[in-house]
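Study this pair:
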Amino acid sequence: MKLKALRERAFVLQRGRCYYCKARMWQATPAELGLCGKYSRQFKCTAEHLVARRDGGRDTCDNIVAACLYCNRLRHARKMPPTPEVYVTHVRKRVDRGGWHVAFAIFE
């Protein structure tokens, strides 16, 4: 299966929500969520490898989830990216405190 198809499959299975922060995501255009402007890009759906390719992760259904661009980039911006489980806990704590994404994030 190609990466795009795996991402789309994960998007549907996750009901359009980011694996980490649970915000709604868009696939083709930010207008899908009624968004525009510079912050809308961070809600773009990306294919997230739970085990990175550099660590032997493959493009398979069980290794690809849908994640917003913001969460995906921040996880992999670290020198030693945390495991998905650790990162989910970190992100959700930040979401609960209102310290993740911008004010118009759609978490409901």
